[in-house]
Design goal:
Length: 479
Amino acid sequence: MSAHRQTEDNLHYSVSMLEPDDFAFWRHKARQLVQSNIPPERVSWSEAGGCGDLFSGGDTQLPPVPNDAATVRASKRFLSLAKNVVLHTDLERFALLYGLLWRQQSNPRIMEDKTDNDVRRAEELDKAVRRDSHKMHAFVRFRMVELENGEEHYIAWFEPDHHIVRANAGFFKRRFANMHWSILTPRGCIHWDGDSMRESPPARRGDAPCDDPTEDLWRKYYASIFNPARLKVSAMMSEMPKKYWKNLPEASLIPELIANAQKRESQMVAAGEQDFQAKPETLEEVGTAINRCRNCPIGDCATQAVMGEGPKNARLMIIGEQPGDDEDKAGKPFVGPAGQLLDVHLEKSGIDRKDAYVTNAVKHFKFVLKQTARGKIRLHQSPAAKEIDTCRWWVEAERDIVKPKLVLALGASAARVVFGKTVSISQARGKPIPLEDGSELWITAHPSYLLRLEGEARATQTQLFDADLAAVQQRLVQL
């Protein structure tokens, strides 16, 4: 071997990252090193400057890639993992990844070895970064400030553990596309003006506003959904560590809510025992009872309970899922877009809604708050099985009083509140199902499902929906 070749083989190379989260730069340098046949022990990786200075320094000159260099092997799993590992703050992350990339050239399946120390370490770093990103998605709280030109701008403060800010900019751009916002962090800031994203240097906590008029909304909403019967302090602290509390308006309520949890749980149990002693004997009594019902958290969330309406001796009872935003405000069932669509198709089938008793499986509106440029809006959230089963008490009371010949369930939640278990709409629709009280259950889709569809899918499902209603109408004529 020539003296020149021996010298090349003993060279040690240093790669200085220009940015701590630049996966594309790392990948470019790593490919160049692999194709130049430079093993991991002869490469040093560092963030620019070596002491946290991310904007200075350069690379030791790397050798040119040979013309006959082989293609670099990298599994999809490795690339997916590496994109997150690069965002970690571990100073050895670049060397760890290069070592794994180097080993893949002779062992393409190394990433499948769960006992390998380097693979396990990369998975640990990946998990930590994903968890940090999850916390950013969950715990960023925007506060509104009014600019000098009168425009509204929303500012949030967040303290990430890792270099995740730039990587998560797209999430917030998609979620709050119509807002003008800034997320300030000690690791750098991102800003969205509705058209373009820009970055700025790290900020301090004092650069962000402390509160705004919407803080009371967050606190009220959090208090309304807090269920003392399901409280597990250790699990809550794991999911919502105290380090994030100072940025969350609702966090000020947590100590008091925990302290009073046992008392509130006892009150809920007592109220439940009182409500469930005997079923109401009139629809008026049902209406009074559901307004004071707090047997599940939804009762504290909505504006009011929404009672069914229609003739007390209706031959047809129509059951939906739950009140929506419009129904919650009006206190009447099926007055929103889904209700208006239902009216159109009922009329088309020959069913007069005025002759039917219309109600819902769940009596309160379950929702989540979403921040928009115009403020927070309430978005429908499907009730859980336990919540449907709790409200079954009230639906059974309505059925006992009205005594309908036919029950039309719109959607899976409505079918469950009658059956007591989940059923397949596609398998059960369009045919009578005998019930113990001598009535028949008919199942079809909920009209809100049709509203979510487009094109051919909507046309197909609308045709099925109309066929189901027509079959119900024919059965009503026969009875």
